[in-house]
Amino acid sequence: MKKFFLHLTLIILLFTISVKAQNKIIVSDLKCEMLTNPEGIDVLQPRLSWKIKADINDVKQTAYQIIASSSLEKLNAGNGDLWDSGKVQSDASINVIYNGKKLKDRQDVYWKVTVFTNKGEIQSKENAHFSIGILTYADWKSTRWIGYEKTSKGDSISQYSRLSARYLRKEIDLKKKVKNAKVYIMGMGLYELYINGNKIGDQVLAPVPTDYTKNVKYNVFDVTSQLQEGKNALGTILGNGRFFTMRQDYKPYKIKTFGYPKMALQLFVEYTDGSKDVIRTDDTWKITTDGPILSNNEYDGEEYDAGKEMKGWNTINFDDKKWLSAEYVQEPGGFYEGQMSANMKVKREVKPISIKQTPKGTYILDMGQNMVGWLQLKVKGNAGDRITMKFAESLQPDGSLYIANLRDAKTTDIYTLKGGGEEVWEPRFVFHGFRFVEISGFKSKPALENFIGKVVYDDIATIGTFDSSNPIMNQIFKNAWWGISGNYKGMPIDCPQRNERQPWLGDRTTGAYGESFLFDNQTLYAKWLDDIKYSQTQDGGLPDVAPAFWRYYGDNVTWPGTYITVADMLYQQFGDKKVVEKQYPSMKKWMDYMEENYLVDDIMTKDKYGDWCVPPESLELIRSKDPSRLTDGELISSAFYYQLLNIMRKFAVIANAQNDIKHYDELASRIKKAFNAKYFNASKNNYANNTVTANLLPLTFGMVPKELEQKVFENLVYEVEVTKNGHVSTGVIGTQFLMRTLTNFGRGDLAFKLASNKTYPSWGYMVENGATTIWELWNGNTADPAMNSQNHVMLLGDLLIWYYENMAGIKSNPETPGFKQIIMKPDFNAGLTYVNASYESVYGTIKSDWKKDKKGLVWNIAIPANTSAIIYLPTSEAPAVSINKQKLDKTSYTYSIEKNQIAVTLSSGNFAINVK
């Protein structure tokens, strides 16, 4: 029997197994983590998953045994006092539900797995851990919310709100030696937590934002090593975040506000003698607003006066006599939940590439990349000197900042020096979207070394890579990465720079799907679905923005429909059935609401945005004025609602809502019939006014009668290829399906032309005009740039999905969600000569590296253990194919011939394929 040795990393509820086989170590740099060894989860039956990484082919799991224990000592002794699953005959290695003893509040769980495979037994050597959070509201009852519900000198309750940070502290005396300790904190809107002068955790801008009247997230930290016997000091800084909203006393009918910053904290301590203690927030804590953070506003920036720093404020024996006693304050109103998604973090650094002086004596710093985060400053000077940094995405022709597109966001950080040597500073409670920074206040020209860009987004892994023979496509991919990562802020936002930064649903309808190939965004989007659910009105309506920081309840299909398409993405890409079951009642409620209020004669009559951002006919126009370019809104809403019915039918099966299936089937059939009767032009074989979107949606959604599909597709192709000269003519809606539909109907070459174009309108046009992210407008450099965010991802449509599924050939079989079986069917003839891509699935790394020339095709692929793949080869001649230097024949492989292609079924492993 071969020996396997494992390296485990708990994910939440996932952990990773790296395999060492035949004494050859396989080094695994896997970071496909939902949550690693999480503290304070708020589910009693978490799902456990693992990955098997082997250096041999055809590894299949046949059984598993999970042991869960209440202590690490018991786990190491093999005592599964919480759960011993026994040997379970199953190939399931993701989303295995914990089925042991009922877990309790704040309980620690240690666990490991033994995996049985067709190649031998794999026994984990490392152990995983998670802890349960505080599950009931009553368990917080003795903990009071504290804060300071007033303004201070320099604060302003206005359109341009200013509010100084709140500093809180308390000294505690621990009489005994600490065995373990955990702190549970809700700091609204943002917090930093310190114990004995040390910051707890490496997160920033925590916790993730929610509608605080609906739900409030708490974070949990193991602080055993930070505490000592005797005196200890607890300290927090509270920033404003989305709680004390960026715009106060301004458009209250639109902008939701929540009050002044506040916090609730519980510190649970267990001593070595078994006794326990709890420290809570109450009015014995001290508070001041007279600290160095004078203002922090996400739109306008952070102002910091180092001369007001309070040395040692978060350590013991600090003199806080001038501080006030904390006030008891009203709680936010939302239910308390353990945060099951990652906080934000400084993920990388960017060094600036140039600095130039302007005629007015300021300096323009160029980061070389449109990025999201902030700038770290190093400076020497006198006490009272002020350094001002104003952030923007682009420059005007004279070299000064272009700020019109920021609207009324001031995007300015100000640092006042304390003097006495080099000072290093960066803000705590803001972020900026920027490439350029105007800097003033230096006595002489600063050096590039004085500045470092800190890139901030959710602490989730990059799990996809893509490189190809086309430089334009490669740069678009990089631009997409920067745009997507920058707009992950505890929720997916539309843009990071101007006075908006809102979680618009319509930007992610299909975008979330494409993003999932680049980022491990499962917990982010699972959290966002909760945000959408919480935003639902009692009668079933959903907003266009969720959390509903802006009250935009417009009742349309395409934006709120994202609630359903994102759930479908989580099921398809990550195999997450639970999210469907959880959200199904609210999704059904919205579908019923739209049917009851807006379905007339089986046509969905409500649309709000149309095919948003159709490329205008002129480079100078923001919106198209040509009716022939615009698609009927009711056509869009009816087609989209039809597609949502098909998804809901699938969800009804998953959720065991059998009574709904018949209704979805019947309603979809009626809508399809009415749709074709109203919009199909039988004499021309097209829909409505023959826009690409008008033909594309019914083709993609299967609404076109089979015998007419090709004729409708020919009309679509003519519009793309001839009328629009091989350019994109769809807006946000059509672009979500454009690339895949062209390819699936046999015109991958035309999709490639769209992807590789350099002229307007195209993604390549953005690149050719200096973009390092994705623009909001196709012509964002010419059509009143004041209307253009230079970091928006909604126009990506299905481009990234097409990169992976159609060019790389990395696609999950819809019949086996989560990449249990992979469909590898690249379009080798679209126009690329090589693609090298990888994707870290929930089972492991999938690789597709192909190159073709006149001699044939060389394709190297990797298939994770415990999965399989169907690969499609561009030949019908088996003798022309070799796999791992072995000729393809039926004695070694299962294959069939389909439409001049050979479809081969492969088990896991690494394969070198040659096709002559």
UniProtKB/TrEMBL annotation:
SUPFAM superfamilies: Six-hairpin glycosidases. Keywords: Hydrolase. InterPro entries: 6-hairpin_glycosidase_sf (IPR008928), 6hp_glycosidase-like_sf (IPR012341), Alpha_rhamnosid (IPR016007), Bac_rhamnosid6H (IPR035396), Bac_rhamnosid_C (IPR035398), Bac_rhamnosid_N (IPR013737), Ig-like_fold (IPR013783), Rhamnosid_concanavalin (IPR008902). It catalyses: Hydrolysis of terminal non-reducing alpha-L-rhamnose residues in alpha-L-rhamnosides. Residues 463-807 form the Alpha-L-rhamnosidase six-hairpin glycosidase domain. Residues 176-347 form the Bacterial alpha-L-rhamnosidase N-terminal domain. The keyword DNA repair does not apply. Residues 356-457 form the Alpha-L-rhamnosidase concanavalin-like domain. It holds the Pfam family Bac_rhamnosid6H. This is alpha-L-rhamnosidase. It is an enzyme of class 3 (hydrolase). The lineage of its organism: Bacteria, Pseudomonadati, Bacteroidota, Flavobacteriia, Flavobacteriales. Residues 809-882 form the Alpha-L-rhamnosidase C-terminal domain. Its EC number is 3.2.1.40.
